[in-house]
Design a protein that fits this description.
Strand 18 and strand 19 form a beta hairpin. Among the domains are: 134 residues, PH-domain like (Roll), CATH 2.30.29; 77 residues, no CATH class; 57 residues. The strands form 4 sheets. The chain has a 7-stranded antiparallel β-sheet with strand order 6-5-4-10-9-8-7. 42% of the residues lie in helices and 25% in strands. The chain is of the alpha+beta class and 511 residues long.
Length: 511
């Protein structure tokens, strides 16, 4: 029931929302143009049928959006946000302002052209996305005013001496080619184009210039054309990675806009401004993918509640793009409001040596042996060339797996430092976590038969923020209950033997 004063006005989303909904017609029209370009203006009947179905679907979606717009109103009072919506059944939703934990302002190119933005507010129950409140197409000025009003009731904290954590430095562009988009981005774009053409009935392999390209490639010397093609893919991917970096991080800044709110702004075509309440910021995550780590770079992300479901939280939690590692450490320390990040000043405790053997065996069983067998079997049946490929692959892959396993073991570690739990793991992406210990709500102990035989267990700290669960892998099983009891006192009390001290060797009744 809404208890707002009668004088508080109700607002409707901006009428320009109608133009945003009409933007749904762009994909069918874009598909038609792309098909006409690829076929020289000749579109098969199946393509017209597909386009007609797409246009009809988007028309229905647009009509539904217009009806929803006409039936949506919102109201902000001194202590709550109310949204009234519904077509056949009117729904009134009222959320106290003190439950709103983050506000995300996102503007696509169409929104920016129209002077609009999308306001998404994450609440204390938005871990699965159902607690999120979204207002589509709010004028930019009203959106910033609305964000201030929604976050006005958050608990205040003291400001740091310098509220600005970081701003974009275009020298960081050198880290863009060390990301996934160099190779993966080319594959994503190629797959998207193929699916669009296939959806409108265009068989790409029958297009003339595609057939000619493959014919010329096959008739050339492969030991020259294959490396040339790889270089072309890397060059194209690097250009795409640079363009993606510029679009995503144009105008980037991360700063404490007041004593209680950390705000990250970024974006060129699609702008985004994410505000995180200090009380919901539970830690930071330092990410160092293999190539980026080799180049001395890293990125930082926040572990915070109220950012939506897992996928949305990953997009909204980023505090820093790929940048120098020292910059990532400084931003992480600023987010935690500490003079120096514990990840630098604290030496992590190593895990048992058996964890190295497990990683080595895992690499051999899941990668080296299957690929070698896949080459040996057809080699024995068809040609000896594959037999030579098999032993060469095994000879090269075995030391590579050993090096990766050793790196993964060296990365593995944990420690307690004041109010934080520190955890590090991974080789392809080495992630270092600094998590507030009082944010841990529960513990999970799990192990496979092989891990139990090695005396190891995986401890998972359940947290109402970020990924909702963070793992400490290959932890000594006999020490796991004591470590968990010391890290977050009170959770395991009923499972521990009475009279045992957590600092000593503790046995658990149930794991």
């Amino acid at each position: 029931m809404n208890n707002a004063p009668a004088s508080t006005p109700w607002h409707r989303p901006d009428p320009r929302t109608l133009l945003v909904h009409c933007g749904w017609l762009a994909p069918p029209l874009g598909s038609l143009a792309l098909t006409a370009l690829a076929t020289g203006g000749r579109i098969p009947a199946s393509g017209w049928i597909t386009l007609a179905a797409l246009a009809l679907s988007f028309a229905v979606v647009t009509a539904i959006g217009l009806i929803r717009w006409s039936r949506t109103h919102y109201q902000v009072t001194a202590d709550s946000l109310a949204i009234r919506s519904g077509v056949l059944t009117t729904r009134l939703r009222t959320v106290p302002l003190h439950r709103i934990r983050s506000v995300d302002l996102t503007a696509t190119p169409l929104h920016r052209l129209l002077g609009l933005t999308v306001v998404r507010a994450g609440t204390t129950t938005s871990g699965d996305g159902r607690g999120e409140i979204a207002l589509n197409a709010v004028p930019v000025r009203d959106a910033h005013r609305l964000r201030g009003a929604l976050l006005a009731r958050a608990d205040s904290r003291a400001l740091a001496d310098d509220p600005v954590l970081s701003r974009i430095d275009w020298r960081w562009l050198r880290y863009a080619p060390l990301t996934f988009w160099v190779i993966g981005g080319v594959g994503v774009v190629a797959g998207t184009v193929y699916r669009i053409l296939d959806g409108v009935g265009v068989e790409l392999w029958r297009v003339g210039f595609v057939q000619n390209a493959f014919r010329q490639f096959g008739n050339s010397v492969l030991w020259l054309t294959v490396p040339a093609a790889l270089v072309a893919v890397i060059a194209l991917g690097s250009v795409g990675a640079l363009a993606t970096y510029v679009e995503n991080w144009w105008g980037f800044s991360a700063a404490w806009t007041d004593a209680r709110t950390l705000t990250v702004r970024r974006g060129l075509l699609t702008t985004r401004s994410v505000s995180i309440e200090r009380a919901r910021l539970r830690g930071v995550l330092l990410r160092e993918p293999l190539l980026l780590r080799a180049g001395g770079g890293a990125s930082a992300a926040a572990v915070a509640g109220g950012l939506g479901n897992r996928e949305e939280a990953r997009a909204r939690s980023v505090l820093l793009p790929p940048a120098p590692r020292d910059e990532a450490l400084r931003v992480a320390a600023g987010a935690l409001r500490t003079p120096r990040l514990p990840l630098v000043s604290v030496e992590l405790e190593r895990h048992p040596r058996v964890a190295l053997r497990r990683r080595m065996m895992r690499g051999m069983l899941l990668f080296v042996l299957p690929v070698t067998a896949a080459l040996l079997i057809p080699g024995a049946l068809l040609t000896s060339v594959l037999l030579h490929c098999a032993w060469i692959f095994a000879l090269v892959a075995t030391p590579a797996v050993w090096l990766l396993a050793r790196d993964a073991y060296r990365s593995l570690g944990h420690a307690l430092h004041g109010p934080h739990l520190l955890v590090r793991a991974g080789t392809f992406s080495r992630d270092t976590l600094a998590l507030e210990r009082d944010a841990i709500a529960a513990w999970t102990f799990s192990s496979s038969p092989f891990a139990r035989r090695a005396g190891l267990v995986t401890i998972t700290a359940a947290v109402a923020a970020g990924e909702h669960g963070y793992h400490i892998r290959d932890f000594p099983a006999d020490r796991a209950p004591a470590f968990a009891a010391v890290t977050a006192p009170g959770i395991l009390d009923e499972f521990l033997d009475h009279g045992s001290r957590p600092e000593a060797s503790v046995t658990a009744k149930h794991l």
